[in-house]
Amino acid sequence: MKPVWIIDDDRSIRWVLEKALTRENIAFKTFASADEALGLLAQEAPQVIVSDIRMPGESGLELLQQAKQRYPHLPVIIMTAYSDLESAVAAFQGGAYEYLPKPFDVDHAVELIRRAMEESLRRNEIPESLENEPEILGQASAMQEVFRAIGRLSQSQATVMITGESGTGKELVARALHRHSPRSAKPFIAINTAAIPKDLLESELFGHERGAFTGAQSMRRGRFEQADGGTLFLDEIGDMPPDLQTRLLRVLSDGQFYRVGGHQPIKANVRVIAATHQDLEVRVKQGLFREDLFHRLNVIRLRLPPLRERRDDIPLLVRHFLAKSARELGVEPKRLSEAALKFLSAQDLPGNVRQLENLCHWLTVMAPGVNVEIKDLPQELRFESAATTAEQNWVSALEKEVANALNRGESGLVDVLGPQFEKALIMRALAHTGGRRIEAAQLLGLGRNTLTRKIQELGIDASKGRDD
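The structure assignment produced for this chain is given below.
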């Protein structure tokens, strides 16, 4: 892992952080000035930078600016004396990850550095070799509509609502909207409102003041502050608790909010992009989602198609994900045979693109050879397909029988085929239960008397069933 850089002209500050990071087994390098760090920054990137603001020579703000230009996703923590709060505001505007007031608690400093390291690792999960690849893949006409919408929205500041099933790539589209907008130089902050407990979500969104609740040992900036000047992506917005819906509506209306436990209003210049897999109109009718918030978010709606509506894209996505997994694992890319690719393209894949990506990663790890056949696909996928095929076969047979009857000029088909269908159901249920009518009736969803009557009406052999 890359080291953490500590930059401060105060030797005592460097010494304290050196001891704390050594105790935590965190690799580090220390610098007495920003000039020293900038000289090395041209050659290598740290995991995290922790820098004072005011130092002889280049300031911490100038270091922040140059570091962000060279490594946009590098977390930079700015240390500042209490008298430097105006500079801290400037640091946040410059993209600082967080600020650390002096004098600081050493344990809090280490916790902050660890959080920044985790953020850095998440940002670096995508290999550098993928950076120049298309943001979103798709040649199907349904995806071309999405691309055109992103293009039309490139210079817009409008709030966007992205709808689509789970796994269709809603966050990828949100990132593309941000990347191609006038806010692209500012942060893109994403939060899944369904993944955070209700009692923590308010603090996560709006931040909190020190002492606002048990465990709030320091002031924390929320996602709205972190996204200032940029874009805030609110995923699964349909699951947001009602009281937070009210707070969100207020922020969208006047651009101001309060931290938890705070009394000073904070302004936020943030473009909100929301996403949901749910039908918000239905949730509004059910009283689970505020109608005024729905209209505030639903300025422009962008629907992402499920994978079953863009099957032509499956071969393209498979090749991309197999190559990506191979690069990540340092192995030779797997290849799907024509039969396996055709089989996979016929599946509904309810998890959509995310499920397909996970499947490709599974194949990279688990498939025995470079060439992947149908038998090498996960067992559950092949079993589900077999069950679906069986269902399609009997429905297809029924449709064929109806078509033949119509071609023969027959009419009253419900009266003819309906009893045949019911007779087949009842006879198979009785065979399954060994002739026990009560059990068969339960399986069919009928009353016992109804089943007895239908056995008589349909002329089913009475010996086929008994009442015990």
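Interim note for the steering committee: The longest strand covers residues 76-81. Residues 379-407 form the longest helix (29 residues).
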